Amino acid sequence: MSDEPASASETDTSAVADMIGIWAPRGNEVRVVAGTAIILGLFPFVFARMPVLSGLLQGYQSLATLILIWGIFALGFDLLLGYTGLLSFGHAAFWGGAAYAAGVFSQQVSGSPILMVAAGTAFAVLLAWLLGFLSLRRGGIYFAILTLAFAQMLFYMSSSPLASITGGENGFTGVETAELFGIFGLESDLPAVLGLLLGTWLYLFVAIITLLCVALAYRILNSPYGMVFRAIRENEQRAEFVGLNVWRYRLMSFILSGFFAGVAGSLFVIHGSYVPLASLYWTTSGEVVIMTVLGGTGSLFGPIVGAGVYLYVENIVSGGHPFDFIAPFWHLILGLVFVVTIWVFPRGIWGFVRDVRDLVTGGED
Amino acid sequence: MSFHIEVITVLLNGLQQGAIYILLAVGLSIILGTLKFVNFAHGALYLIGTYAGLLLALEINLTSGLLQEWGYGQIGLDLGYIPALLLVPLVVFVVGLAMERWVVEPFKNRPDTDQILVTFGLAIVVQEVFRIFFGSSSLPFSQPAWAEGAPQVPFLVQIPISSWRYYVILITAVLVAIVYLLVEFTDFGLIVRAGTRDPEMVELLGIRLSRPYIVVFGIGAALAGVAGVVGGPLNPVNPTIGNDILVPAFLTVVIGGVGSIAGATLGGVIFGLTYAILVATFSSWAQVGLYAIAAVILLVRPQGLLGEAEVAP
Predict the structure, then answer these.
(1) Phi-psi region of B206 (alpha: psi -120 to 50; beta: other; left: phi over 0)
(2) Residue A122: count of CB within 10 angstroms of its CB
(3) What ipTM score was computed for the predicted complex, to two decimals?
(4) In angstroms, what separates the C-alpha of B253 from chain A's closest C-alpha?
(5) What CATH number has the domain bearing residue B81?
(6) By residue range, what is the domain housing residue A221?
């Protein structure tokens, strides 16, 4: 994030050099992004098609895609909770709002997946700007309750006054997703080895966006701008005294987190071709809270892991067969694990993994 | 039905709905004001109150859930409503004491967000336990036979509202008055209020604060339990009712002003009346209007209608 405006006397070449400088990878970025790409590439194969392991895991392609989508949502949520230290209970508004916006966009304007994501995300960002502006007047519990109230308002808006657009209680069913670039049907398999590895075009599409989101989040969090978020979390007053405008950074963090929620919400409607009304209810906000905390707040990959664990339990453990004896209790188990996590391991699964790694490697990063 | 009777009906319905919010909000508010603890499990206490009331007052047939599978499909003590009204607050009071001791105490010095998260998790656990044992389908919690019809008052026009709703309003008024008197005019209340202002000084004076605090939490919980019993027969009873009532209850607290009993009461009355009036006029906007009003009040007066700016956390 370079704050210096380029002066008029500078030549074109230095402007270009600046541009390259901004986009050049820093620190571990190449390692992180490449590692993420490899994991994203292998994940659906291991999870859904690998001979022995996938049989044990009972995984399937569609769930792999869904895990990435919720992973993006949780990643964005962690930007707010884990890095800026604000607990929002209203993120369902951005997730569900973007899903509705993308769905309506596909019906009325264009079914191109990329445009749908753009439309849904734009809606979520505008909404986040508005709601953030209104709810960030008070910190702590007031922020949690205000975001909750605004999100609930949106839920009731779409449940009855706007039912003619949103479909009310039945949810929005008129989603018409077209082919990617007008050629590739999202549900069809990728050619040759890619098909074996990644499965469908939809997964490839979602995986590429996930990769971009991870790279963007990494870049934000490791920039001076992202450092300010952490400074505010650690000590708001000190950040204020140093001369930072805490309110603006918080608003920006809220909007950024709304952006990720919007991307995820739009992908969710492309994935499911349907927007349930419950996607706006406050328990959806609760789900992303659980995923983030379970995976580990204040880390880049923790929330994605948390989303994976949550959805795995919700979809596979609840289904029976190898988990017959605990299947009816899946939600209770998640609740208990969540409580224990906050109580004993506030840094979540990822924090636990890091502690173990530090123990093994002697604490070197 | 003439117009003024319709108006009175709507207002009474609103007051009754507000009364449920008030019972929950007063409890939440005194807990938040004195213990500085954010209890997202207050809806769960309401849920416990409703189920405890149902099982004490009636005998019901379960249609799903583990108890039914184990052959205890017909369950309940069938003691009637009055014993239930007296026993449930005691039960939930004890639950509240346990919760203060085992949950609030360990989380006293952790950030607000951790308190919200842990109580939110506990609320899920409680809800799921009830779902597993009693099934997720709605259970019949009928109003008592003696409170079903409209009250017959000589020389007055009859208002088509069951007597139960009057009792709800009456019970709420009495309980809130008792809590108010307890906090404002007794030695116990004095210690609690002093502890709210300056806990360190109170403890330096040799007064132990942990006991009054645990009692405050118990009272708040008991009020939620009462709300569960009196509110139970008015709505379908299923495991999600706690989740559904939590958000309006919290909003009642913050629009009234944290820590203020009068504020919570005012907030509840405003909420109940607004909701009832909107249901009678623009019914599809009723819920939206509720949240819109809350948002406007909080934006204009962030500390709540009767809240003090500096006390609020």
Answers:
(1) left
(2) 17
(3) 0.86
(4) 10
(5) 1.10.3470
(6) 27-285
